[in-house]
Amino acid sequence: QQIKKGVESAFLKVQKEYKSDVFGFGSVFHRKYPEEWERISEKWNKIFSEADIQVEVETKAIRTGLTNTPINIIKGK
Prior knowledge:
- There is one protein chain.
- The protein contains five helices and no strands.
- The chain is an all-alpha fold.
- Helix 2 crosses helix 3 (about 35-40).
- The two termini are about 35 Å apart.
């Protein structure tokens, strides 16, 4: 949930406050829909700033229980 809130917060800040597509969604749209892009490219920042977003987060925990401190340093205390 914290990751999702952080992503949403960052996205909304650039979308609403800066009205700029710093994440490159326009580039992805352009590659996938080149004909539509020609029609909307001039208005992309306005379209982007008004778009509704939906964030889905998928995480995977790997190698849990490991520490960054070598065992011999802990043992020497």
